[in-house]
Structure formats: structure tokens, C-alpha cells
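User: My collaborator sent over this chain with a note saying "see what the structure looks like." That's all I know about it. Can you take a look?
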Amino acid sequence: MNVSTTCYDLHRFELSDMIELGGTLRQLHSQADSMEESASAIVHYLYEHLVDSATGEKNCALARLFKTHRFAELEPRLQDVARRASGNGPALNDETRCLTLLATAGMRPEWNRRASSAAHKAIPLVTEEVVRQAPMVAQLIQGFGLDISQVVRPDVTLMLDADQQNYNVFHVPEAPGSAFVPAQDFVRDCAIRSVLGFGGLFSSGDLFAVILFSRVYIPRETAELFRTLALSIKLALLPFVRGRIFAKEA
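Assistant: Without extra context I'll predict from the sequence alone. Here is the result:
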């Protein structure tokens, strides 16, 4: 597969960029053996190819892809992470959805491997009340036009038209000082200007989302274009929905 080497600027992103980038993202799963490998190819491509046209610097400090999984589907180490994250809250069970980090790429070495990430590896979505206490997660879900209950307790019988649904984007144009980006130390230290999330649902009811932490301002017009790119991401991940999720360890 010949992957495009074109670079795109989030500050000057146009319809033609969206069409070309979407075509590339749809192909990135061809060399992957798992959903994690496909997701990793996606976020690394976005991190490397979203570039400031004036300075040549990468637009994003960090790009990540998350997907919800049943607790029972997680690797043992991720189950331990989810249990610790739940703390003294409600007990987890096999059906508890966990928002799981599948892939990460960023400006620090530890941000380029899922296993080396310090936080957010598996966030248990135990109840709607628990999710609302995590403002970024809650706003991400609601920004996609979904009810929190749809993600916490997916009803497959109501997901028959999930493939036809259109989803909005999670867009924080000004990250500094925003209540929707609680990690303000990270925002300050990495000069994060805007945050953009895009994704949707699989027919199983599981949510997937790419989140870009940008060091350049992302206007609303650009954020809207990423609604369409969510479908490209979905098509790249879809072959692995009923197959291997996590990559084999080296």
C-alpha cells in the first residue's frame, strides 16, 4: 500500500484536505493484525502529518484513540487498571464498559506506546453519575450527540441503525481554562490551544473516538469537517470488531 505523504494544517484545513485524508485513513488497516495496530497506524499518521504549514512543526502535542470495551474483554493488566481507577466506587462486572486507550502518539517518548502511558488506559464507565464526574468524558459523549446511558449500558436492539447515524464532534476551541479539559497542567506545559474529538458507534453499541490535542487554534469550520473523517476511522477499525483487539506482545 502506498500511503500519502501529504501534510495538512489544522489551522487551514479545507474540504479537499478532508477528502484526501479520509481516503488515506481508510487504507491504514491493510497491514494490521489487530484493532490496536490499526488504531496505532491512524494516530501516528495523524500526529506525523498534521503540520503547521508556516513553521513545519507538528500541530498536535498528542493524538489518541479510545474505544469502549466490556470489562471481561480487557487484558488482565487493563482489568487491574480499571479496578484501581474505580477505587471505592461501584463494583465492576463483566458487562461494565471501560473507555480503553487503544493507541497513542505524541511529543514525549512515553506517549508513543499504550503500555507506557501513565493514565487513562482504562476508564470504567460504571454509572451515568460516575461518567458525569469526568467532565471531558461526559462532554465527549454528549458532543457526539449521544446520551451517556447509551454508552454506559448499550442496548444492541436500539443500535441497528448505528451505521447510518451522523455524529457531531467534541470541540474545545480554547483549551486553556476550559472545564472540559481538566488536565490544565498538561494544557499549559504543552501549549495546548484547542482539543478536537471525533468518532461514533459500532453496531455493538461500543464507542470509538480519536482525540487531538492541538497546539494551533482549530476553528469550528475545521472541526465540522472531521465529522466525515469519523466514518473513515470506523471503516479502518471495522474489520477487527469481531477479531483480535489487542496486538500480540513482542
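A starting point for your reply to your collaborator: The beta strands are 60-70, 97-106, 122-125, 170-172, 194-201, 207-214.
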